[in-house]
Amino acid sequence: MTLRKLGRFVAQNIGRNRKNFIFAGIGIVVGVSSFVFFAALGGGIRHVVSTEIFPLDANRITVIPRKGGFSGPAGFKPLDDAGVKALEALPGVAAVYPRMRLAVPATMSLVGSRFPEEELARIARLPGVTPDIVASVKRLDLWLEIMADGIDPRLVKDEVQFGAFADPPPGQPVPFLLAKRLVELYNASFAETRHLPPISEIIIPFVPPMPLVVNDSYVNRGLAGPQENIRVRIVGTSQQALLGGITLPLDTVRALNRRFGGEAAAAHFDSAVVEARSAAYIASVQAAVRELGYGIDASQQRMADSVALAVTLVMLGFTLISLTIVGVAAVNIGHTFFMIIYERQREIGLLRAVGASRGDIRAMIHGEAALVGLAGGAAGIILGTAGCLLINLLAVRLLPKFPFKPTQFFAYPWWLFAGGMLLAVVFCLAGALAPANRAARLDPSQTLSGR
To answer: What confidence score (pLDDT) does residue 117 get?
Structure first.
């Protein structure tokens, strides 16, 4: 039987038994649509985790000093300028970005009544800023202990939006960065409940410089030594910034550590971000870093992996439910084909009598099953995608604002739709396997004689 004739038979049989095939394909539609929905939801959640909550760069690792009997005081190999140069010399390393913690405490007081009137007037003119927000700013009375660190400006050069991120000339405000995660938490909880303006790209250029007192603490008022009053100004947000504080230029922190802690406080870095030429070099770079005697901070990776694993397990459970629905539908399709074959025994016998082989009969049944699978898979993908779009629209509009609330809860990789279609076709073919074999084994003489 030629492919053209086979296709004509398949189309005719589908048309004559379309009601039976439609009912048989409902389970395929439901199963595929649920598969698309839950797989897209899992992909969307994983995307938020990997890009917003725990952002990780595939070609970067964080190197830290490690204890363990190596050179240096008290069995501690310091990460200093020499160590940074050794890391830069490793094969496959493109750049090294050291960072250093501010070794002395600092405080910041944000008192709205002290803000200049011209600054308040500038804030009041911003889009979305209401008189209630301006009044809340005037009532602001925050006294904060500030943690700070310094970072190599090269690491964040693409994230600095408003001004230069570098050690400023004397008398000029020191630029600083806030962690994007910290800003998200502030905007979603702290600012909204206190009617304060959210931190955004619109408002950042209008935020006035803020006072920072170095070598001061509200917790321990007995600190020895002089204090230093400086002004700091926000110039952007970054995924690389300190989560629980502010991030300053590395040279600024190093100079402050030298003034308040001596040369030793300014000599040792707390960590360094090592950037490989590509992700393919990461394994060899990690091994070389360990051979130098340094450790690798994998805490972010472990947290991201834990969250991703939890999301994967939940989505896997829902996916198994979808597969179960499709499996039950495959059984239903098998029963449908058995019934249709029983009704078409004489027709199949006639085809065998005029020269159709058993393989042709199997191919005809499998073709009908594949066509049902393609139609059911397409309908399931359309239904599942429509459900995703509807739920995403309702979630964005109706769910209250919370930290890291995405504007897109679902992800649609290409393999999702291909997998849904393949799932439908494979299960339909599996359901039709036994009926096709039975149809191929029918004896033409017996079926045509009515026996």
So the answer is: 79
**Structurally, how many domains does the chain consist of?**
2
User: Mean pLDDT: which of 17-21, 295-299, 309-313, 414-418 is highest?
Assistant: 414-418
User: 403 lies in a domain?
Assistant: yes
Note whether residue 69 is domain-resident: no
Q: Is residue 131 part of a domain?
A: yes
- Let me know whether 122 and 246 are in one domain: yes
Same-domain check for residues 130 and 205: yes
The pLDDT of residue 71:
46
Is there a single domain that holds both residue 205 and residue 337?
no
Q: What's the residue count for the chain?
A: 451
Same domain, 47 and 157: no
Strands 66-67, 76-77: parallel, antiparallel or unpaired by DSSP? antiparallel
In a domain, 323, yes or no: yes
Domain final position from 241, 262, 283: 262
Residue span of the structural domain in which 236 resides: 101-262
Together in a domain, 329 and 394: yes
User: pLDDT, tens digit, for every residue of 42-96?
Assistant: 888 888 877 777 666 778 889 998 765 444 444 567 899 999 999 999 999 999 9
- What pLDDT shows up at residue 389? 94
Q: Are residues 253 and 362 in the same domain?
A: no
Tell me: do 311 and 254 sit in the same domain.
Answer: no
Per-residue CA distances from 165 to 43, 155, 162, 251 (Å): 35, 11, 9, 11
Over residues 130-134, mean pLDDT: 77
Domain boundary among the residues 206, 238, 262 is at: 262
Q: Please list, in sequence order, all residues whose beta carbon lies within 8 angstroms of the beta carbon of residue 105, skipping any fewer than 6 positions away.
A: 145, 146, 215, 216, 217, 219, 220, 223
pLDDT of 335-372, one tens digit each?
A: 777 777 766 667 767 766 766 677 777 777 788 788 88
